[in-house]
Specification:
single chain, alpha+beta
Length: 762
């Protein structure tokens, strides 16, 4: 065993052992659909200056969402109920009282100059006790917490301040801070008027003296300060998140708080788990059938991928929902992509022609891994770029998707480049495997490649016909959206929340079945204490609410009383949707820039056109099918975006390789070769994902089936568009442009004329 193989093996074992330890010793954080959580109803109250109307309450929701994100609670649900009430549902909250306290604080932060001491006359002035209980007289507020750019809890034992909150101001607020501290610095040291009072909700939390080194009228120009006050770690972090999240425009009061059960029943969760197990098993069997021994080793690497990625999700505290788990299972099927790229490249490297000298299997695999590296690196780099931007710029479920996507990409590369490579290197050392190449699975070109070689199709001879077909698909999709519209879910449109009290205990599965029979199969149903049933959904009118009550009374619930009936706003509000679109748009632009740097702008444009094509077709398919477009669909659509770019990058990586190898070759012919050479990889990777998706669609329940259907359409369309939309777009844009040479420089005029004589597109 070589040193490199030994290092890979040791690294793989250490990571797997650590992952198993985390997976076995830590419990996952489950979402509202799997475990339930805490439901609070908050009521916004009017003040003398601000009325708690619908617009103000929507602003309160966005502030609360930022606080919840800072608390580390993922996948919360926040929706306006009526004019001034807010329904907050938090999964896996360890301390509901602490959460209610943090959410309920107004967090009005202001910075004041300290005026003359009380004994010098304080008529008409505001006097508050400072952090040590001494009275201080406050001048007019010089700036507010709205000017704070960032707040972070820090510990600094060297300065003797212990835990404190570091603040950074933005723009005009930094100048105001410099002015406030500059005026205070004009007073003598130890004079109260040299202090600056930091007030949070009418309480002075800190009133430090301006340092003697600060000159009069110059102030602290750094735009930063710190809040000290004998905080412990928890108090400092809570204060930081309150300041960073922003102040509530009006005070809120908790009017109801309770523990609610999961939104999905045990039967739905069990059926989904069975579907996932069937799908993963079929994918493993398929890969083993196609690639034999090395396919079985790749399946073992996928098992390692599942363990490591699950441990990473648990260790990072990611909240797992049923669609999230389905996406995790799908990622296992898609993680086979890097393995398939290497194995298909090994089939190309195999010396199956008599005149080519025989090479060892280890040498063949090493060369295949090296030549497949650029495709693996570029495909995963674009996905990681998008994941990072979605996390940094998005919020709510979009931010969570960025985290899980990044984990999946990193772990899939570890699975393919470390675990699978260590296993195949070890297997290739056996003389039997090296001698009988058919056992390894890379001893021949494979059935798909053999078929394409014999047929010799040239799909890029007339690229415009594929663009016409793509345009027809887009037109059909847009027509569906215009004619049938989108069946937007309650997350986007809002709806109605009706709560019933039953005379007898009704279990969650029975309640969901009754609501579905009443005509609302997509409604979200939760139970509390066995006798309180909450139904949330779109399209519930008075007759529908009565029908639901009658249905709940039927299966043993006895007398049913409606105890609450309110209209609710969307849980994915306008600001959340806008932030999601901005994050996605910036991610696409960043991918375009990266692909332009790594390839050519024409190739990058082809990738983006294919991506837009796939998104439009998936949305149009759901419009024609009438399926709900909700948060689950959003997760599926983001997955399609990642899959589409990944597929297109693999094809363009091969075009780039062939073009550099034959700089005077005709680009359409090179594109034909690139498409045909990557078809086996595309087919086998897509099949691995389709097995899982088909199982989820057939055996899964409700929203999970919709998730699988969206991805089934997305994978099929993405497989098509990566070759037959992206490449034709690039070919048309490349017409009349110089081709790259081995050195990367454009051709000279003479070389372009020679290429034209040979029929190349230049």
């Amino acid at each position: 065993m070589t040193r490199t193989t030994a290092v890979r093996a040791v690294l793989a074992v250490l990571v797997l052992l650590a992952s198993l330890f985390v997976a076995l010793t830590q419990s996952p954080r489950l979402g509202l659909d799997l475990q339930g959580g805490t439901r609070m109803v908050l009521e916004a109250r009017d003040t003398a200056a601000v009325k708690a109307d619908a617009d103000t309450t929507d602003h309160v929701i966005e502030v609360l969402r930022q606080r919840i994100d800072a608390l580390g609670v993922a996948e919360p649900v926040l929706a306006r109920s009526g004019e001034n009430r807010i329904v907050v549902e938090l999964p896996d909250v360890q301390d509901p009282r602490h959460a209610a306290e943090v959410l309920g604080r107004t967090a009005q932060l202001t910075f004041h100059p300290v005026e003359a001491p009380p004994e010098e006359g304080t008529a008409g002035r505001r006097v508050l006790p400072d952090e040590q209980g001494r009275p201080v007289t406050l001048g007019a507020a010089a700036l507010s917490g709205a000017g704070v750019k960032d707040a972070e809890a820090r510990f600094d034992p060297q300065q003797g301040t212990g835990w404190h909150v570091a603040l950074d101001f933005r723009g005009d607020a930094a100048r105001d801070w410099a002015g406030l501290t500059g005026r205070a610095a004009c007073h003598p040291v130890q004079d109260d008027r040299r202090r600056v009072a930091i007030v949070l909700d009418d309480k002075v939390v800190s009133s430090p003296q301006v340092d003697p080194s600060v000159g009069c009228r110059s102030g602290i120009a750094s735009g930063a300060t710190r809040i000290t006050g004998a905080f412990d770690a928890a108090e400092a972090r809570q204060l930081a998140l309150l300041i960073k999240g922003g102040a509530l425009p009006v005070p809120v009061e908790t009017v109801d708080q309770r523990i609610v059960g999961p939104t999905l029943g045990a039967a739905a969760i069990s059926a989904s788990a069975e579907a996932a197990a069937v799908g993963v098993s079929l994918t493993a069997l398929f890969i083993t059938f196609v690639y034999r021994l090395f396919g079985a080793l790749a399946a073992a690497a996928l098992a390692a991928y599942g363990v490591v990625s699950y441990a990473a999700l648990v260790a990072l505290g990611v909240t797992l929902t049923l669609p999230g788990l389905a996406g995790f299972v799908l990622a296992i099927g898609m993680a086979v992509d890097a393995n398939v790229l290497v194995l298909e490249r090994a089939r190309e490297e195999y010396p199956n022609r008599p005149r080519r000298p025989r090479r060892s299997l280890r040498s063949t695999m090493s060369t295949a891994s090296r030549r497949a590296w650029t495709a693996v690196a570029d495909a995963n780099a674009t996905t990681l770029l998008a994941a990072g931007l979605l996390f940094l710029l998005g919020s709510g479920p979009v931010k969570g998707f960025g985290v899980t996507l990044a984990i999946g990409v990193v772990v899939s590369m570890f699975s393919a480049l470390v675990v699978a490579r260590a296993l195949t290197d070890a297997a290739a050392r056996f003389p039997f495997v090296d001698r009988f190449r058919t056992v390894s699975g890379v001893g021949g070109p494979g059935r798909v490649r053999t078929f394409l070689t014999r047929r010799g199709p040239r799909p890029m001879r007339t690229p415009r016909r594929w663009l016409v077909l793509s345009a027809v698909l887009v037109a059909v999709a847009v027509t569906g959206v215009l004619l049938r519209g989108l069946n937007l879910g309650v997350e986007f449109t809002g709806g109605r929340l009706v709560e019933y009290a039953t005379a007898r205990t009704v279990d969650a599965d029975t309640a969901r079945s009754a609501v579905a029979k009443a005509g609302f199969p997509d409604a979200e149903v939760t139970t509390a204490d066995g006798r309180d049933v909450s139904v949330r959904g779109a399209g519930i009118d008075d007759d529908g609410a009565a029908a639901i009550g009658d249905a709940l009374a039927g299966p043993g619930g006895g007398t049913t009383t409606k105890v609450r009936d309110e209209l609710i706003g969307p849980s994915m509000g306008e600001e959340l949707r806008r932030n999601a679109m901005i994050a996605l748009g910036i991610a696409v632009v960043a991918q375009l820039a990266y692909l332009t740097a790594r390839f050519r702008w024409t190739f990058a444009t082809g990738c983006v056109v294919a991506l837009v094509h796939d998104v439009v077709v998936v949305v149009g398919a759901f419009a024609w099918l009438g399926r709900p477009v909700d948060g689950v669909f959003l997760a599926a659509l983001l997955t399609v975006v990642g899959y589409s770019v990944n597929d297109s990058v693999v094809v363009f990586d091969r075009v780039r390789e062939l073009w550099r190898r034959e700089p005077h070759g005709a680009l359409p012919a090179l594109a034909d070769a690139a498409v045909l050479q990557t078809v086996p990889r595309t087919v086998n990777t897509g099949a691995g994902a389709l097995f899982i998706l088909a199982a989820l669609a057939v055996l899964g329940d409700g929203a999970l089936a919709d998730f699988a259907i969206a991805l089934l359409v997305g994978v099929c369309v993405g497989t098509y568009s990566s070759a037959l939309t992206a490449v034709p777009v690039a070919l048309l844009l490349e017409a009349g442009r110089p081709a790259p040479t081995r050195t990367g420089r454009p051709r000279t005029c003479a070389s372009r004329r020679a290429a034209q004589d040979n029929g190349a597109v230049v």
